[in-house]
Specification:
The chain has 309 residues and is of the alpha/beta class. The protein has 2 domains: 2-72 and 204-306, D-Maltodextrin-Binding Protein, domain 2, CATH 3.40.190; 75-200, Periplasmic binding protein-like II (D-Maltodextrin-Binding Protein, domain 2), CATH 3.40.190. The chain has 11 helices and 9 strands. The strands form 2 sheets. A 6-stranded mixed beta sheet has the order 6-5-4-7-3-8. The protein has a 3-stranded antiparallel beta sheet with strand order 1-9-2, with helices on both faces. Helix 4 links the parallel strand 4 and strand 5. Helix 4 (105-116) packs across helix 11 (272-288). The longest helix has 19 residues, at 222-240.
Amino acid sequence: MPFFDGTARPPEGFTLKALQVGQSHPLRDGIDRHGGMLQGRYDIAEFSMSTFLMAVDRKVAISGIPVFPRRLFSAGLIYVRGDSPFTKPSDLRGKRVAIRSFQTTLSLLAKGDLKFEYDTPWEDIHWLLEDEEKIEFKPKRSAKIEVLPQGTDAGHLLRDGRCEAVIQPHPPHSIMSGQVDVRRLFADADAEELRYFRKYGWWPIMHILAIRTELADRHQSLCHRLIESFRSAREISWDYFSDPNWSSLAWGRRYYERERKMFGKDPWVFGVAANRKNLEQFIMYSHDQGLISRRLDVDELFHPSVLDT
């Protein structure tokens, strides 16, 4: 928000034109932000971490800046029908599960967590895909993949018994509005995600700030200055929680205080060093799922000018 209302500090010596471009749904300035960045429509963009790894593996001319504007846990985004007998990840073995696409970052995280955290190999699940992939890849022989007709509503699949679970960063309106009777697979998703955080020490990255490599090479100070701009925006946005004008939640400030106590001062931490282990896990997941050809080194993801962060 501070970039859109002009209160964030711009990178010294540069001007920014902030665009609201949606990914799953159109916003003021359009849709398909990730595709637009791949096609060179933007200089800098919030970008899918999973697709970014694939782009780096395929030598696409974009570089990372260690700012991560979106983070999600997987556990609380696994939905089943309200009358489902399923209560744990292993119940999904052999079942049909709807996801946005195979390479969507939450899909990557969920498949990896199912296999390595919950002993439920993603290879044992039949994956139903709603969207086209941003970057083409050849699925592993072990992958059970079915592409759904365009416009399929995953909530209706769940309602009609044509799938047993949905895992999506933006569940469809049919699920979120209550039109379809659903519940989360984990009875206490908050507790499960907090356990995950305490075990690993990170809130999983979903998106990275990507920049055209040519631009970063031409202006060697720009990446560092963008980090400072995002740090400025973050500090401004934190103050929103102290002002009830920014939230319609009755207990917003108290909830914020509780979350800070549970997760520490800064689960949104910037920089390469502080996020290295999280990124290494993503790289391992991506390679295991056949999305990248080799285990990338974390330093390959970022422009050389910010490797010291």
